[in-house]
Amino acid sequence: MADRVKIAIVGSGPAGLSAAARAAQLGLSHVLLEKTDHLSDTIYKYQKGKHVMATPSALVLRSDMDFDAGKREAVLGTWDSQAAKFKVNVRYRSEVKAIEGEKGAFALTLTDGARIEAETIVLAIGTQGNPNLLKVPGAETGNIQYQLDDPGEYIDEHITVIGSGDAGIENALGLAADAAQGNTVTILNRSADFARAKGANVKLLQEAADRGRISIRLETTPAEIRGNQLLLDTRDGQETIRADRIIARMGSAAPRAFVESCGIEFTSPDREAFPKLTPTFESTKPGIFVIGALAGYPLIKHCMNQGYDVVEFINGNKSLKPADEPLLLAKFAKFRAKRSVDEWLELLRGNVTILNELSPLQMREFMLDSEVRSYKAGEEIFERNDPGSSLFAIAQGSVLVEIDPKNRSVTVPIEQGSIFGEVGLISGRRRGATVRAGENAVVVEISRTAALKLMASVPAAKRAITRISVERQLLQMFGSGLTATDLAEVLDTSEIMTVRAGQPILKEGDEGQDIFVIRVGSMIVEKAIGGRQVFLNYLPAGSYVGEMAMIAGGRRTATVKAAVKSEVIQLKGEAFLKLLAARPRLAEKLRGDMAARQNINAFIESRKDSFSGAVDLYSATASFLVENGIGEATDVLLIDENLCVGCDNCEKACADSHDGLSRLDREAGKTYAHLHVPTSCRHCEHPHCMADCPPNAIHRGPDGEVFIDEKCIGCGNCQRNCPYGVIRMDSVPPKKPPLFAWLALGLGPGPGEPGKAWKYKAKAKGTEAPKKAIKCDMCAGIKGGPACVRACPTGAAIRVAPEEFLGVARLERGDG
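Predicted structure:
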């Protein structure tokens, strides 16, 4: 005869255990089914000695089970003793094989053949048993593991951790905690941000890297496993490192086949989608409730609160509000409309496209990191050149984008449901246009951290943001009166590709008619001339290639490859040809661009004998510049060694313009032929220094300059993340005296950086100023432009955008 209970709870993690404790406290018949021989298998499998965090700190814990931040062993010990104290009915080694029946009469079949009947079911099974697997060549034979139990077991190994969420970071920290173990630990992060991890964990990781315990590899992904060697795709190309062991912590997904077999629907077909749930956690199968990580809430405190709440709901408590209700209520209190929190969340979720597939539970967590604002018609939301990297979503009304700074009346509307501000989110640049409310509007401002987390955890949101940003990039690039409707088919068939440094997207002589738009990064164009590859051109983000073969037919006339790790949008030629047929102005624009490129090819062919030496020198010099970081620069300082006399006026002028601290090291850097690349900021298109700035002190100026404002706290993250070594940490020296006082009376230091004596004196007196990040800001706000260029007496120093400097057109002018 089957056991019969009111509530069957599947899974004894924080959510399930909390639910069972509440049921026991209320005297409800229940059973807690756990497939292992211990409680909370996910926490049990945490590495030994792991510190378990109790975040978010502002959220109250209402579970009957206690939980405070502490060691894994202490947390598990508390739960074991309290489960016994509350007389929780736990059934160990009880894995559920199938669930059948309807609300009030469910039947659960276990793998051992036992059968349990229940009126309601709470699924709290988590997702850790279904990890995302590493899929690269060699993975089937590589030494890969998806769990780390005891970091102390590993000694003198080269270990690579793949995954930059909390689990990956904590594993890396555990493996590197004891220097005596002798492990060489590397952690890979495919992006420049740790979007999925808690701030405290990221801070600990950076501190470990500062001590030399861990190597952090940003914008790096595994490409292939070859025995104990791991081939990496990095922003600068491919690289091989030793990896005796690989620990892959790349997230996990719901055991979808089992969950769907219970009659539960998911929000989308995506592997990482979550079940559809009501605000009371009930699924699309009446009587089956879903809580915890399976519901999209992975934080322990959230899970425990849900366990408590779901049993209260099942027991008929209709008035109970979630524990985060006061926090969310405060966000909406300023609005006149008297809606409940649930009504507000549903309004925002339903009206904003990128939020459509979030569950009510995910919406609550999302809104804790976002703000809702209202604007009257005509009110400014942000101004052109304002700093800011947040994303905005229109929940009600519409906004107007002022596309002509000289004429405010020239605007483009963005309607309800869409987003704006995506350029600041993706590139970190200042706002490119003034945006104001076109009518009374309600707008959600999504912090950069929340937006990146949203894109990382909700595939549908990432697709929506990507599509909108691509659509607007194409409209801006091609112009010609195009509308979003015109681009629909082109976008539907498009594909975004990540291209490693050196990887070609077009090969000379190949067939094909697709067009490629450079979204992030840059490309170089080469052509085979006289048996050698000749550098033709440099293409920054916002350029496109491939139109020649599409319009004129024939094979590709040049090779185009990534200068640095890049993203390109592949537009299918068939769809684009239809667009050209419908839009003659666009066809005319592309033919003009094609003619310019054909002229360059013809010029090279006609001069290949007489200019062979110049072509070779130019090609080698251009390749040298790209190898030294010019491929991702927007503005770079170059010095012509044929003209430089070594006077150091450039460094002195830089120091005199910046509180006595030079942002330039003329002698450092590399030289090829007569061209020298000194140590000075490149003002990268996607600055690595911006990746992890806690006070958000790094911004882009109106002319593209990357600068650090007064909010800098001297943490040094930007210095660590810059691959070119152009940021230093230093204290600002005392103010210099006027020039006359120095000349006539000898007061204070002269031009350039002062000597170090002031530092020693300040340190002895205890008055030394805290260190801050120092880097080139292109002399923003200083009349006349960069001081280093103005101060050069011979014209050796020049600041240029790479696309202006790298191109065969220079050979045509005779300055190659």
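Summary: The chain has 25 helices and 41 strands.
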